[in-house]
Amino acid sequence: MSAASVEWGYDSHNGPETWPIQYPQAAGEKQSPIDIQPVNLKTLKMNKNLQWKYIPEQCEELFNTGTSWKVHVNGKGSELAGGPLEGTYVLEQFHCHWGEKDDEGSEHTIDGQRFAGEVRISKIPFYIILCYLLV
């Protein structure tokens, strides 16, 4: 099956397990999906606090795909900076996706376990992704 014939998604025929096959550029070590392994996590001590601003009036479009909702944002003024980040990140979009069962829906996993859904907040530049797994 070629990338041209199938759009990416979250089903068995087009889900995260198939992305590196359909899209070779998604085969890197720093690509979605990410399996978070708590035993490997490290605590960072920062001299500066993480700071964020959110302006709800900058939301431009909300749509439902049937397996997710997405909000596109004109991020002027909605920003994330400080903490371990270098520079300022501007909000571009946020979305939530879910599955039909409690053990599917999240793109990312913790110790290989999937969850019912996931909320993702995308910022630019460099697409820093903040994820909240929905239990």
What is the tally of beta strands? Answer: 9
Topology pattern, helix = H, strand = E: HEEEEEEEEE
Largest sheet: 7 strands, antiparallel
Q: Report the radius of gyration as a whole number of Å.
A: 16 Å
Overall pLDDT confidence: 79
Low-confidence stretches: none
The first-to-last residue Cα distance is: 33 Å
CATH superfamily assignment of the largest domain? Answer: Alpha carbonic anhydrase
Proportion of residues in helical segments: under 10%
Total separate domains: 2
Strand content: 35-45%
Helix/strand structural class = mainly beta
Number of H- or I-type helical stretches: 1
Just name the CATH architecture of the largest domain. Answer: Roll
- Sum up the overall morphology in one term: globular
Top-tier CATH class of the largest domain: Alpha Beta
**CATH topology assignment of the largest domain:** Carbonic Anhydrase II
Family: Belongs to the alpha-carbonic anhydrase family.
GO cellular component, one term: cytoplasm
EC number: 4.2.1.1
Protein name: carbonic anhydrase
Can you give a write-up of this model?
By secondary structure, this protein is an all-beta fold. The protein has 2 domains: 1-31, no CATH class; 36-134, Roll (Carbonic Anhydrase II). It is 3% helix and 36% strand. It contains 1 helix and 9 strands; from the N terminus they run H-E-E-E-E-E-E-E-E-E. The strands form 2 sheets. Strands 2, 3, 4, 5, 6, 8 and 9 form a 7-stranded antiparallel sheet that branches. The chain has a two-stranded parallel sheet with strand order 1-7. Strand 5 (79-82) and strand 6 (89-98) form a beta hairpin. The longest helix has 4 residues, at 19-22. The chain is globular and about 40 Å long. It starts with 18 loop residues before the first helix and ends with a strand.
